[in-house]
């Protein structure tokens, strides 16, 4: 069913406020070890933790007043450090509002740091199984992915949607600020950044150091650390310093790089970290010596001398097998067997809102558009949606799952305003907004490169 004009607010309020507290089901093999909950949920939940055979750590929270439903969380990243038993505590704190709302919650750290979408999807599914086997069986299960975890969730629902008996493992999907353009398309701009940066900075690698193709990100045997790389970026651009403390050359280098790339200067170091260490991981673990990216024919614009830049910048072509391997691991196909609500900030500085148009087009091409609703907020933060914005999206998704009411753009703002009496934070939904094509934000590739 599709609502005509406005959300039946009384019905929504009932679905959110009148869910009976459910007793925890009898356990099959005993509860896992309890762990100290983060302060944000310590008074309202019991937390459990375990290390799985894969090496992934699982963290679960069971509300003392459980609404019978489960949220399976896929975190962002990829992480730059090996997982620890405490690694998911920050995510549980950040999304404590989900536990406050009565949802059970479980997350995996993933088995190792670094890139691997299919790996992360399998580990997230293992966290769901852990909750069911060791804690309780939920009535309904919602998959929640944030940032890179949004890509993990989009791929997980393609590959792990059903149980062995044919029933659906997940009833719905909620994404916030998800990298739903996929790795192949979504990381292309970092390949551009890598060559543009090197053209101006010439210090990654330095002239006297062993050279390597820039699509590799970093040579496999380098001893360079994240801290070392940050220092080189700062050496060239002064980006960590106040503008007045930068040299004239640093100011010029930074202005050229940001002018060509078009993202906020505060994001330069973060994107360079990915364009070096993450690209090395992709080469080592996914493409095995082949470039998944191409910048052949790209005409960069926005520098002090575009002609010289385009004449002299490093160029490389994509290897078709490498490109296909990256797409197979981390490019959504538009398969969507259950309802999905995806929210994204119009002003997201890290994962540009235009990625939503890529995913929308893929879902539409796969014939699944009726199962996707996208809504947009306007905070200038990545994964920075407020508590009432998060809860509004979750409850509209839950109502869609249970009652068949597919939400419309205006319903998010209405539901959010209604929830402000119980949750702190603003409501910044913009029902009128639609993202432009991805090509409006970053440089486009030809059909062969994609």
Short description:
By secondary structure, the chain is an alpha/beta fold. The chain has helices at residues 9-17, 89-94, 96-100, 117-134, 148-159, 183-186, 188-201, 226-237, 248-261, 268-287, 306-312, 320-330, 355-365, 387-403, 409-419; strands spanning 34-35, 45-51, 57-63, 69-74, 104-108, 140-146, 172-176, 340-345, 372-377. The chain has 2 domains: 9-180 and 332-440, Rossmann fold; 184-328, no CATH class.
Mean pLDDT: 92
Low-confidence stretches: 1-5, 8-26, 446-450
Q: Which structural class fits the helix and strand makeup?
A: alpha/beta
Q: Secondary-structure element order, as H and E? A: HEEEEHHEHEHEHHHHHHHEHEHH
CATH architecture of the largest domain: 3-Layer(aba) Sandwich
**How far apart are the first and last residues' alpha carbons, in Å?**
37 Å
Work out the number of β strands.
9
Estimated helix fraction: 25-40%
User: What would CATH call the class of the largest domain?
Assistant: Alpha Beta
Name the CATH superfamily assignment of the largest domain: Alpha/Beta hydrolase fold, catalytic domain
- β-sheet strand percentage: 5-15%
Rg measurement, Å: 23 Å
- For the largest beta sheet, what order do the strands appear in spatially? 1-2-3-5-4-6-7-8-9
Largest sheet: 9 strands, mixed
Put simply, the count of helices is: 15
Number of domain units: 2
What spatial form do the alpha-carbon principal axes imply?
Answer: globular
Kindly report the oligomeric state of this protein: single chain
CATH topology of the largest domain: Rossmann fold
């Amino acid at each position: 069913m599709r609502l005509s004009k406005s959300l039946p607010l009384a019905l929504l309020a009932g679905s959110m406020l009148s869910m009976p507290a459910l007793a925890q089901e009898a356990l099959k093999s005993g509860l896992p070890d309890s762990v100290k909950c983060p302060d944000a949920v310590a008074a309202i939940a019991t937390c459990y933790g375990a290390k799985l055979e894969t090496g992934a750590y699982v963290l679960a929270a069971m509300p003392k007043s459980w609404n019978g439903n489960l949220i399976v969380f896929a975190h962002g990243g990829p992480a730059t450090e090996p997982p620890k038993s405490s690694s998911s505590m920050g995510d549980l704190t950040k999304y404590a509002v989900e536990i406050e709302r009565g949802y059970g919650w479980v997350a995996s750290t993933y088995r190792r740091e670094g890139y691997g979408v299919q790996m992360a999807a399998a580990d997230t599914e293992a966290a769901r199984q852990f909750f069911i086997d060791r804690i309780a069986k939920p009535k309904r299960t919602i998959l929640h992915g944030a940032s890179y975890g949004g890509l993990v969730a989009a791929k997980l629902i393609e590959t792990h949607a059903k149980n062995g008996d044919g029933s659906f493992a997940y009833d719905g999907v909620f994404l916030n600020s998800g990298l739903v353009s996929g790795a192949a398309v979504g990381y292309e701009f970092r390949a551009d950044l890598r060559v543009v940066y090197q053209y101006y900075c010439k210090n990654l690698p330095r002239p006297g150091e062993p050279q390597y193709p820039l699509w590799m990100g970093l040579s496999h045997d380098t001893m360079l650390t994240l801290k070392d790389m940050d220092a080189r970026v700062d050496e060239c651009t002064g980006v960590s310093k106040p503008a007045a403390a930068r040299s004239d050359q640093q100011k010029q280098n930074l202005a050229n790089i940001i002018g060509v790339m078009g993202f906020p200067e505060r994001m330069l170091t973060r994107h360079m970290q990915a364009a070096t260490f993450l690209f090395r991981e992709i080469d080592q673990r996914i493409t095995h010596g082949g470039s998944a990216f191409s910048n052949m024919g790209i005409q960069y614009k926005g520098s002090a001398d575009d002609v010289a830049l385009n004449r002299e910048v490093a160029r490389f072509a994509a290897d078709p097998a490498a490109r296909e391997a990256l797409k197979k691991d981390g490019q959504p196909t538009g398969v969507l067997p259950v309802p999905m609500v995806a929210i994204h900030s119009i002003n997201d500085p890290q994962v540009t809102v235009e990625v939503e148009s890529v995913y929308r087009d893929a879902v539409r091409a796969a014939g699944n558009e009726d199962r996707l609703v996208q809504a947009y907020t306007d905070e200038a933060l990545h994964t920075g949606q407020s508590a009432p914005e998060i809860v509004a999206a979750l409850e509209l998704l839950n109502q869609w799952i249970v009652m068949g009411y597919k939400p419309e753009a205006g319903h998010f703002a209405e539901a959010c305003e209604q929830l402000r009496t119980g949750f702190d934070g603003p409501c910044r939904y913009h029902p009128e907004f639609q993202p432009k094509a991805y090509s409006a934000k970053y440089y486009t590739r030809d059909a062969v490169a994609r």
